[in-house]
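notes to self, project folder thing:

trying the whole complex as one job this time. last attempt i did each chain seperately and stitching them together was a nightmare. three parts in total, labels are on each line so i dont mix them up again. if this works i'll redo the older ones the same way
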Amino acid sequence: MGVRHINPEGLHRSPAFSQAVVVEQPAKTIYIGGQNGVDADGKVVGPTVGEQARQIFRNLATLLESEGATLANIVHWRIAVVAGHTFDEGVAAFQEAWNRNDPPPAITVHSVAGLGPGFLVELDAVAVV
Amino acid sequence: MGVRHINPEGLHRSPAFSQAVVVEQPAKTIYIGGQNGVDADGKVVGPTVGEQARQIFRNLATLLESEGATLANIVHWRIAVVAGHTFDEGVAAFQEAWNRNDPPPAITVHSVAGLGPGFLVELDAVAVV
Amino acid sequence: MGVRHINPEGLHRSPAFSQAVVVEQPAKTIYIGGQNGVDADGKVVGPTVGEQARQIFRNLATLLESEGATLANIVHWRIAVVAGHTFDEGVAAFQEAWNRNDPPPAITVHSVAGLGPGFLVELDAVAVV
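result (full assembly):
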Protein backbone atom coordinates (compact mmCIF):
# COMPACT_ATOMS: atom_id res chain seq x y z
CA MET A 1 0.00 0.00 0.00
CA GLY A 2 1.13 3.53 -0.78
CA VAL A 3 -1.05 6.33 0.51
CA ARG A 4 0.12 9.95 0.42
CA HIS A 5 -1.81 12.93 1.80
CA ILE A 6 -1.04 15.96 -0.35
CA ASN A 7 -1.31 19.72 0.21
CA PRO A 8 0.61 21.23 -2.68
CA GLU A 9 2.05 24.75 -2.60
CA GLY A 10 -0.49 27.34 -3.73
CA LEU A 11 -3.45 25.73 -1.99
CA HIS A 12 -4.90 26.61 1.37
CA ARG A 13 -3.48 24.42 4.13
CA SER A 14 -5.59 23.31 7.08
CA PRO A 15 -5.01 20.95 9.99
CA ALA A 16 -8.59 19.72 9.53
CA PHE A 17 -8.26 18.10 6.12
CA SER A 18 -5.89 17.14 3.34
CA GLN A 19 -6.51 18.61 -0.10
CA ALA A 20 -6.28 15.17 -1.67
CA VAL A 21 -5.07 11.69 -0.95
CA VAL A 22 -3.13 9.64 -3.46
CA VAL A 23 -3.38 5.87 -3.47
CA GLU A 24 -0.79 3.77 -5.26
CA GLN A 25 -1.54 0.15 -5.81
CA PRO A 26 -1.77 -2.52 -4.67
CA ALA A 27 -4.24 -1.54 -1.98
CA LYS A 28 -7.47 -2.77 -0.44
CA THR A 29 -10.28 -0.25 -0.79
CA ILE A 30 -13.22 -0.08 1.63
CA TYR A 31 -16.37 1.69 0.44
CA ILE A 32 -18.27 2.69 3.58
CA GLY A 33 -21.95 3.49 3.13
CA GLY A 34 -23.61 6.47 4.77
CA GLN A 35 -23.22 5.98 8.53
CA ASN A 36 -25.79 7.45 10.89
CA GLY A 37 -26.02 7.91 14.62
CA VAL A 38 -27.67 4.53 15.22
CA ASP A 39 -26.85 1.72 17.60
CA ALA A 40 -26.59 -1.98 16.77
CA ASP A 41 -30.40 -2.20 16.64
CA GLY A 42 -30.66 0.63 14.13
CA LYS A 43 -32.10 2.97 16.77
CA VAL A 44 -31.12 6.63 16.66
CA VAL A 45 -28.97 7.34 19.71
CA GLY A 46 -30.09 10.90 20.40
CA PRO A 47 -31.54 14.10 19.03
CA THR A 48 -28.36 16.16 18.71
CA VAL A 49 -25.65 16.36 16.05
CA GLY A 50 -23.04 15.75 18.76
CA GLU A 51 -24.56 12.48 20.01
CA GLN A 52 -25.14 11.23 16.51
CA ALA A 53 -21.65 12.20 15.33
CA ARG A 54 -19.99 10.44 18.28
CA GLN A 55 -21.96 7.29 17.48
CA ILE A 56 -20.97 7.56 13.81
CA PHE A 57 -17.29 7.63 14.77
CA ARG A 58 -17.85 4.57 16.99
CA ASN A 59 -19.56 2.78 14.08
CA LEU A 60 -16.74 3.72 11.72
CA ALA A 61 -14.18 2.38 14.19
CA THR A 62 -16.11 -0.90 14.46
CA LEU A 63 -16.31 -1.23 10.69
CA LEU A 64 -12.67 -0.44 10.14
CA GLU A 65 -11.42 -2.68 12.97
CA SER A 66 -13.24 -5.59 11.34
CA GLU A 67 -10.85 -5.10 8.40
CA GLY A 68 -7.72 -4.53 10.45
CA ALA A 69 -7.92 -0.80 9.92
CA THR A 70 -8.52 2.40 11.90
CA LEU A 71 -9.95 5.87 11.27
CA ALA A 72 -6.50 6.81 9.94
CA ASN A 73 -7.16 4.62 6.90
CA ILE A 74 -9.98 6.84 5.66
CA VAL A 75 -8.85 8.72 2.54
CA HIS A 76 -12.03 10.70 1.82
CA TRP A 77 -15.19 11.31 3.77
CA ARG A 78 -18.33 13.12 2.81
CA ILE A 79 -20.41 14.66 5.54
CA ALA A 80 -24.03 15.71 5.16
CA VAL A 81 -25.74 17.77 7.85
CA VAL A 82 -29.43 18.62 7.82
CA ALA A 83 -30.07 22.31 7.05
CA GLY A 84 -30.55 24.40 10.17
CA HIS A 85 -27.92 22.47 12.13
CA THR A 86 -24.25 23.36 12.26
CA PHE A 87 -21.53 20.74 12.17
CA ASP A 88 -19.70 22.30 15.14
CA GLU A 89 -20.58 19.39 17.44
CA GLY A 90 -19.53 17.02 14.67
CA VAL A 91 -16.14 18.70 14.51
CA ALA A 92 -15.81 18.29 18.26
CA ALA A 93 -16.67 14.58 17.95
CA PHE A 94 -14.08 14.24 15.19
CA GLN A 95 -11.43 15.89 17.37
CA GLU A 96 -12.17 13.43 20.19
CA ALA A 97 -12.01 10.43 17.85
CA TRP A 98 -9.12 11.39 15.62
CA ASN A 99 -5.44 10.98 16.44
CA ARG A 100 -3.90 14.36 15.61
CA ASN A 101 -0.65 12.77 14.51
CA ASP A 102 -2.38 11.15 11.52
CA PRO A 103 -2.76 13.16 8.30
CA PRO A 104 -6.47 13.97 7.90
CA PRO A 105 -8.60 12.68 5.01
CA ALA A 106 -9.91 14.68 2.08
CA ILE A 107 -13.35 15.99 3.01
CA THR A 108 -16.63 17.14 1.47
CA VAL A 109 -19.33 18.83 3.56
CA HIS A 110 -22.90 19.55 2.41
CA SER A 111 -25.87 21.00 4.19
CA VAL A 112 -28.78 18.97 2.81
CA ALA A 113 -32.56 19.35 2.91
CA GLY A 114 -32.98 16.09 4.80
CA LEU A 115 -31.74 12.60 5.65
CA GLY A 116 -33.47 9.43 6.84
CA PRO A 117 -35.98 9.68 9.72
CA GLY A 118 -34.38 11.16 12.83
CA PHE A 119 -30.93 11.53 11.26
CA LEU A 120 -29.20 14.91 11.51
CA VAL A 121 -25.85 13.87 10.11
CA GLU A 122 -24.57 11.23 7.73
CA LEU A 123 -21.01 10.36 6.82
CA ASP A 124 -19.83 8.05 4.06
CA ALA A 125 -16.21 7.29 3.34
CA VAL A 126 -13.60 5.53 1.29
CA ALA A 127 -10.81 3.89 3.26
CA VAL A 128 -7.66 2.27 1.93
CA VAL A 129 -5.60 -0.38 3.69
CA MET B 1 -11.32 -9.71 -8.17
CA GLY B 2 -12.13 -9.98 -4.48
CA VAL B 3 -15.20 -8.17 -3.24
CA ARG B 4 -16.60 -8.73 0.24
CA HIS B 5 -19.76 -7.17 1.65
CA ILE B 6 -19.29 -6.63 5.37
CA ASN B 7 -21.68 -6.12 8.29
CA PRO B 8 -19.51 -6.54 11.37
CA GLU B 9 -20.91 -7.42 14.77
CA GLY B 10 -22.04 -4.37 16.69
CA LEU B 11 -23.51 -2.55 13.71
CA HIS B 12 -27.12 -2.46 12.63
CA ARG B 13 -27.86 -5.13 10.02
CA SER B 14 -30.34 -4.51 7.22
CA PRO B 15 -31.38 -6.51 4.16
CA ALA B 16 -31.42 -3.22 2.22
CA PHE B 17 -27.73 -2.37 2.34
CA SER B 18 -24.31 -3.53 3.40
CA GLN B 19 -22.41 -1.41 5.89
CA ALA B 20 -19.35 -1.44 3.68
CA VAL B 21 -17.85 -3.27 0.76
CA VAL B 22 -14.22 -4.28 0.63
CA VAL B 23 -12.40 -4.52 -2.68
CA GLU B 24 -9.16 -6.42 -2.97
CA GLN B 25 -7.11 -5.97 -6.08
CA PRO B 26 -6.77 -6.54 -8.93
CA ALA B 27 -10.18 -5.27 -9.95
CA LYS B 28 -11.75 -3.10 -12.62
CA THR B 29 -13.54 -0.08 -11.14
CA ILE B 30 -16.44 1.64 -12.91
CA TYR B 31 -17.27 5.19 -11.83
CA ILE B 32 -20.89 5.81 -12.85
CA GLY B 33 -21.99 9.42 -13.08
CA GLY B 34 -25.30 10.65 -11.72
CA GLN B 35 -28.01 8.73 -13.56
CA ASN B 36 -31.41 10.31 -14.05
CA GLY B 37 -34.76 9.10 -15.30
CA VAL B 38 -34.04 9.94 -18.93
CA ASP B 39 -34.34 7.89 -22.10
CA ALA B 40 -31.75 7.53 -24.85
CA ASP B 41 -32.66 11.01 -26.14
CA GLY B 42 -32.08 12.59 -22.73
CA LYS B 43 -35.83 13.16 -22.25
CA VAL B 44 -37.27 12.77 -18.75
CA VAL B 45 -39.50 9.66 -18.78
CA GLY B 46 -42.17 10.87 -16.35
CA PRO B 47 -43.03 13.16 -13.47
CA THR B 48 -42.87 10.64 -10.61
CA VAL B 49 -40.03 9.25 -8.51
CA GLY B 50 -41.21 5.73 -9.41
CA GLU B 51 -41.02 6.19 -13.17
CA GLN B 52 -37.70 7.96 -12.96
CA ALA B 53 -36.21 5.38 -10.59
CA ARG B 54 -37.26 2.48 -12.83
CA GLN B 55 -35.60 4.20 -15.79
CA ILE B 56 -32.47 4.79 -13.73
CA PHE B 57 -32.21 1.07 -12.96
CA ARG B 58 -32.65 0.31 -16.70
CA ASN B 59 -29.89 2.80 -17.52
CA LEU B 60 -27.62 1.30 -14.88
CA ALA B 61 -28.22 -2.19 -16.30
CA THR B 62 -27.37 -0.94 -19.80
CA LEU B 63 -24.19 0.69 -18.59
CA LEU B 64 -23.07 -2.30 -16.57
CA GLU B 65 -23.90 -4.83 -19.30
CA SER B 66 -21.65 -2.91 -21.67
CA GLU B 67 -18.81 -3.84 -19.30
CA GLY B 68 -19.86 -7.42 -18.72
CA ALA B 69 -21.34 -6.55 -15.34
CA THR B 70 -24.73 -6.42 -13.60
CA LEU B 71 -26.34 -4.43 -10.79
CA ALA B 72 -24.72 -6.91 -8.40
CA ASN B 73 -21.32 -5.38 -9.21
CA ILE B 74 -22.23 -2.05 -7.64
CA VAL B 75 -20.30 -1.58 -4.39
CA HIS B 76 -21.63 1.84 -3.34
CA TRP B 77 -24.43 3.99 -4.60
CA ARG B 78 -25.46 7.47 -3.60
CA ILE B 79 -29.06 8.47 -4.02
CA ALA B 80 -30.33 12.05 -4.05
CA VAL B 81 -34.05 12.77 -3.91
CA VAL B 82 -35.50 16.25 -4.28
CA ALA B 83 -36.91 17.61 -0.99
CA GLY B 84 -40.64 17.06 -0.62
CA HIS B 85 -40.51 13.64 -2.31
CA THR B 86 -40.01 10.37 -0.50
CA PHE B 87 -37.85 7.61 -1.90
CA ASP B 88 -40.53 4.95 -1.25
CA GLU B 89 -41.21 4.47 -4.97
CA GLY B 90 -37.48 4.32 -5.56
CA VAL B 91 -37.18 1.53 -3.01
CA ALA B 92 -39.96 -0.35 -4.83
CA ALA B 93 -38.12 0.10 -8.15
CA PHE B 94 -34.94 -1.19 -6.51
CA GLN B 95 -36.76 -4.25 -5.20
CA GLU B 96 -38.05 -5.03 -8.70
CA ALA B 97 -34.60 -4.62 -10.26
CA TRP B 98 -32.42 -6.21 -7.61
CA ASN B 99 -31.81 -9.94 -7.20
CA ARG B 100 -32.36 -10.59 -3.50
CA ASN B 101 -29.72 -13.30 -3.45
CA ASP B 102 -26.98 -10.75 -4.12
CA PRO B 103 -25.46 -8.87 -1.16
CA PRO B 104 -26.62 -5.23 -1.40
CA PRO B 105 -24.23 -2.31 -1.94
CA ALA B 106 -23.23 0.31 0.59
CA ILE B 107 -25.61 3.23 0.29
CA THR B 108 -25.87 6.97 0.93
CA VAL B 109 -29.20 8.81 0.70
CA HIS B 110 -29.65 12.60 0.72
CA SER B 111 -32.70 14.76 0.33
CA VAL B 112 -31.41 17.70 -1.72
CA ALA B 113 -32.77 21.15 -2.57
CA GLY B 114 -32.81 20.36 -6.27
CA LEU B 115 -31.39 18.46 -9.24
CA GLY B 116 -31.30 19.14 -12.98
CA PRO B 117 -34.51 20.34 -14.72
CA GLY B 118 -37.34 17.82 -14.25
CA PHE B 119 -35.23 15.37 -12.25
CA LEU B 120 -36.63 14.11 -8.93
CA VAL B 121 -33.99 11.49 -8.22
CA GLU B 122 -30.34 10.95 -9.12
CA LEU B 123 -28.14 7.97 -8.43
CA ASP B 124 -24.40 7.70 -8.92
CA ALA B 125 -22.38 4.59 -8.18
CA VAL B 126 -19.06 2.81 -8.05
CA ALA B 127 -19.04 -0.71 -9.43
CA VAL B 128 -16.24 -3.25 -9.31
CA VAL B 129 -15.76 -6.15 -11.70
CA MET C 1 -3.12 2.59 -16.49
CA GLY C 2 -6.21 1.81 -18.53
CA VAL C 3 -9.02 4.34 -18.41
CA ARG C 4 -11.99 4.15 -20.76
CA HIS C 5 -14.85 6.66 -20.95
CA ILE C 6 -18.03 4.82 -21.89
CA ASN C 7 -21.35 5.90 -23.39
CA PRO C 8 -23.04 2.66 -24.37
CA GLU C 9 -25.80 2.48 -26.99
CA GLY C 10 -29.22 3.09 -25.47
CA LEU C 11 -28.09 5.85 -23.14
CA HIS C 12 -28.30 9.57 -23.70
CA ARG C 13 -25.05 10.96 -25.14
CA SER C 14 -23.79 14.40 -24.18
CA PRO C 15 -20.59 16.30 -24.93
CA ALA C 16 -20.65 17.53 -21.33
CA PHE C 17 -20.12 14.24 -19.54
CA SER C 18 -19.38 10.54 -19.93
CA GLN C 19 -21.93 8.10 -18.57
CA ALA C 20 -19.22 6.19 -16.75
CA VAL C 21 -15.49 5.77 -16.66
CA VAL C 22 -13.82 2.39 -16.37
CA VAL C 23 -10.47 2.02 -14.67
CA GLU C 24 -8.36 -1.05 -15.21
CA GLN C 25 -5.45 -1.62 -12.93
CA PRO C 26 -2.73 -0.87 -12.13
CA ALA C 27 -3.53 2.80 -11.63
CA LYS C 28 -2.88 5.56 -9.13
CA THR C 29 -6.09 6.98 -7.68
CA ILE C 30 -6.36 10.54 -6.35
CA TYR C 31 -9.24 11.34 -3.98
CA ILE C 32 -9.76 15.09 -4.14
CA GLY C 33 -11.70 16.63 -1.28
CA GLY C 34 -14.37 19.26 -1.80
CA GLN C 35 -12.67 22.22 -3.47
CA ASN C 36 -14.05 25.70 -2.93
CA GLY C 37 -13.38 29.08 -4.47
CA VAL C 38 -10.63 29.97 -2.03
CA ASP C 39 -7.11 31.25 -2.55
CA ALA C 40 -3.93 29.94 -0.94
CA ASP C 41 -4.87 31.71 2.31
CA GLY C 42 -8.29 30.04 2.42
CA LYS C 43 -10.03 33.34 1.57
CA VAL C 44 -13.12 33.20 -0.65
CA VAL C 45 -12.20 34.85 -3.97
CA GLY C 46 -15.55 36.46 -4.77
CA PRO C 47 -19.29 36.39 -4.25
CA THR C 48 -20.33 34.78 -7.56
CA VAL C 49 -20.53 31.19 -8.75
CA GLY C 50 -18.40 32.14 -11.76
CA GLU C 51 -15.50 33.56 -9.75
CA GLN C 52 -15.60 30.67 -7.30
CA ALA C 53 -15.81 28.04 -10.06
CA ARG C 54 -12.83 29.53 -11.93
CA GLN C 55 -10.80 29.43 -8.72
CA ILE C 56 -11.86 25.83 -8.14
CA PHE C 57 -10.57 24.82 -11.55
CA ARG C 58 -7.28 26.61 -10.81
CA ASN C 59 -7.04 24.75 -7.50
CA LEU C 60 -7.79 21.44 -9.18
CA ALA C 61 -5.07 22.12 -11.77
CA THR C 62 -2.58 22.89 -8.99
CA LEU C 63 -3.48 19.72 -7.13
CA LEU C 64 -3.30 17.53 -10.20
CA GLU C 65 -0.05 19.05 -11.50
CA SER C 66 1.59 18.21 -8.17
CA GLU C 67 0.93 14.55 -9.09
CA GLY C 68 1.94 14.82 -12.75
CA ALA C 69 -1.68 14.92 -13.85
CA THR C 70 -4.15 17.34 -15.46
CA LEU C 71 -7.91 17.93 -15.40
CA ALA C 72 -8.18 15.20 -18.06
CA ASN C 73 -7.28 12.64 -15.38
CA ILE C 74 -10.49 13.26 -13.44
CA VAL C 75 -12.83 10.27 -13.82
CA HIS C 76 -15.76 11.48 -11.70
CA TRP C 77 -16.63 14.81 -10.19
CA ARG C 78 -19.46 15.78 -7.92
CA ILE C 79 -20.66 19.34 -7.97
CA ALA C 80 -22.79 20.96 -5.27
CA VAL C 81 -24.33 24.37 -5.82
CA VAL C 82 -26.19 26.28 -3.13
CA ALA C 83 -29.96 26.42 -3.76
CA GLY C 84 -31.06 29.59 -5.51
CA HIS C 85 -27.94 29.71 -7.70
CA THR C 86 -27.64 28.13 -11.12
CA PHE C 87 -24.51 26.36 -12.24
CA ASP C 88 -24.48 28.20 -15.61
CA GLU C 89 -21.42 30.25 -14.67
CA GLY C 90 -19.79 27.06 -13.43
CA VAL C 91 -20.39 25.43 -16.80
CA ALA C 92 -18.77 28.44 -18.50
CA ALA C 93 -15.75 28.14 -16.19
CA PHE C 94 -15.53 24.44 -17.00
CA GLN C 95 -15.60 25.19 -20.73
CA GLU C 96 -12.72 27.66 -20.32
CA ALA C 97 -10.67 25.20 -18.29
CA TRP C 98 -11.39 21.96 -20.11
CA ASN C 99 -9.69 20.78 -23.30
CA ARG C 100 -12.58 19.72 -25.55
CA ASN C 101 -10.51 16.96 -27.12
CA ASP C 102 -10.44 15.05 -23.81
CA PRO C 103 -13.36 12.73 -22.97
CA PRO C 104 -15.29 14.35 -20.10
CA PRO C 105 -15.61 12.75 -16.64
CA ALA C 106 -18.69 11.17 -15.14
CA ILE C 107 -20.59 13.84 -13.23
CA THR C 108 -23.04 14.29 -10.36
CA VAL C 109 -24.73 17.64 -9.68
CA HIS C 110 -26.75 18.51 -6.58
CA SER C 111 -28.40 21.71 -5.48
CA VAL C 112 -27.82 21.73 -1.72
CA ALA C 113 -29.22 23.73 1.19
CA GLY C 114 -25.81 25.14 2.02
CA LEU C 115 -22.03 24.81 2.06
CA GLY C 116 -19.30 26.31 4.25
CA PRO C 117 -19.39 30.06 5.02
CA GLY C 118 -19.33 32.12 1.81
CA PHE C 119 -19.13 29.10 -0.50
CA LEU C 120 -21.63 28.89 -3.37
CA VAL C 121 -20.14 25.88 -5.11
CA GLU C 122 -18.10 22.85 -4.11
CA LEU C 123 -16.53 20.21 -6.29
CA ASP C 124 -14.93 16.96 -5.21
CA ALA C 125 -13.41 14.43 -7.56
CA VAL C 126 -11.66 11.14 -8.14
CA ALA C 127 -8.77 11.22 -10.60
CA VAL C 128 -6.78 8.32 -11.96
CA VAL C 129 -3.25 8.47 -13.32
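what i see at first glance: DSSP finds two helices and six strands in chain A.
need to look closer tmrw
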